[in-house]
Specification:
Blueprint (H helix, E strand, L loop, with lengths): L1 E2 L16 H6 L1 H5 L3 H22 L7 H8 L7 H11 L11 H8 L8 E6 L19 E6 L6 H4 L1 H17 L9
């Protein structure tokens, strides 16, 4: 299962410009490249994250209780450092973790995913919009779905649909479609 299609970041293309509308949706990534962005997360990470949730998933009417339950994870002592490093690393502004450099090297090849996959996009994803599923990146049993009235946070916006997709991808593996190995 993958939400928002093929999710292996392409570092080689990270500095290729996108259409202006797509660049505008990534404002937070550029903010996090600066110390101002670090301070924003240190000083009021809940405001930053709530704003992102609202922009990424414009029709998701999450409650204050839903947000508060998730926002507890923002209090982890390494939250700011992890977020800042992630967005800086993806644009080549800081090095990656040497302990996983061998894995990053393998991922640089943008490998094809060979296991059964259901790729899902939210029709109103405020980050990047529907991706088309990137079918050329999957060689095993594959299905692409676009969920109407869903944004970027698919498991929380559509938990029943997400659960069904998990069950469906399991069934794809069990039937051995397209020569895939059955799931354990």
């Amino acid at each position: 299962m993958t939400g928002n299609a093929y999710n292996i970041f392409d570092h080689a293309k990270a500095n290729e410009p996108l259409p202006a509308k797509m660049e505008a949706a990534l404002w937070y990534q550029y903010l996090f490249h600066s110390e101002r962005g670090r301070r924003a997360l240190i000083e009021d990470r809940r405001d930053v994250c709530r704003t992102l949730w609202q922009l990424w998933s414009p029709s998701w009417g999450f409650s204050d209780e839903d947000f508060t339950a998730s926002a507890r994870s923002f209090d982890n002592p390494d939250f700011v450092d992890v977020v800042i490093h992630s967005y800086r690393h993806r644009y080549g502004l800081v090095p990656g973790d040497p302990a996983v450099a061998h894995i990053e090297t393998q991922l640089t090849a943008q490998p094809v995913i060979t296991v059964p996959t259901i790729a899902i996009d939210g029709e109103i994803d405020g980050v990047r919009g529907p991706t088309g599923g990137n079918p050329n990146k999957f060689s095993g049993p594959y299905d692409y779905r676009i969920w109407p009235d869903a944004g970027h946070n698919l498991p929380q916006e559509k938990p029943g649909d997400w659960l069904q997709a998990v069950l469906d991808v399991r069934a794809m593996g069990e039937t051995g479609l397209a020569g895939a190995d059955p799931l354990p």
